[in-house]
Amino acid sequence: MPKPKKFPCPFTEACSKGFDSVDGVRAHVRMDHSRQPLPPLPPERPCTSAQLPQPIIPRETAREMVQHMDESEPMDTTVGYSPPSTSDTGSASGQGVKQPLHEVKVGGVPHAYESETPRKLGTLNVIEQRLALYSLDKNLSNAEYTELADFIQFAMDHVRDSSERVSITVRTTETLNSRLNQDADELIKVPLETTSIPITDIEGLPDDCDLEDLSAVLGEVQLCKRDIKKVSQLLFSNPRFSEKMILRPVIQMRGNERVFTDIHTGKWWQQVQSTIPSTHVILALMLSSDQTAVSVNGRFKLWPVYLKLANIPKEIRDIPEHNASRVIAYLPIIDNPADGRSRPWWSGAKSAIIHSCMKKILEPLNKDRLDDGSLLLRGPGNLIYHCIPALAAYSADLPEQYAYKELDYCDFF
Hints:
Mean pLDDT: 76
Order of helices and strands: EEHHEHHHEHEHEEHEEEEHEHEEH
Radius of gyration: 35 Å
Number of helices: 11
């Protein structure tokens, strides 16, 4: 009796041939059935419930558990701890798995802040039940649930403390973006002002400086600047950064090793904080400048000075979309005249002029100081803080560092 073929022809109604391989079936269809339409596929067999993956707790059962929960049975609403990221730039041994990063705050509590009281755990209230239903419907992760719960708690605390009725009028993302852009436009409206500095008012010029020659070449020094105190105030009180604003230095440890991830984790901030009252806040200024050509041939140049606050975390202030860096001034361009005359005092005169310009730029921070040397500035939470301005960093390239080699910014504050 002949052995049956393994692969029959798909056109079973018109052909009963069988083949030993798939290639034989393909060759047979191309030769004998090339002009015939393909036969319909057989009906699919439905999968049984036993073949489908089953969740640990069905969603409907979870919803019923939340909706009909017995108040006598407490539920633990504690959210698990997620270890922080280990992608910091601190020194690490590099051997084995990195240990979790721990922070120890330095200094007292700011004057405008109150100590946080721990929240009591118990059965789910109405808001927690709605939050649980929303979390189940949207499949929120642990981090997303924690962020949403913190935001709701913040809104509840604000309504309780302010004793006023607060409603959310922004219901769409389009309206939200429009409002944010409008607020941002109001925040950055600090006008540029041009100040003239006579050559005779510049301090620290070299003894052999020819004032008549310098005045003939430069005339009066023109400085274009913004009020640095107002710009600092607007950055410090910007609602976009209020929840992340840094008010105290911290010591970060991984195991027994200290790591440094930002300016507030370094030793400088900790040392300055130890010299001021514990209720005061360091307003850490970060200045930078870079002379830039604004024309193709390089004839026209600008020398902008930028301001950032180290109180704003680096993951926010270093991203251009957050607008955490502001231009506060344009220094005068002082080039050596190309008339062939020898001026050995020119470099010293340029440094003295830049020094005078920086004093003019930072001068508003020395006005309206209290007896303890602090400034009253509005900051996070729309609260007033006692701020001590301090220069945390100044970034410049090599030619500008040469121009600043004789400067000492410590006497500015």
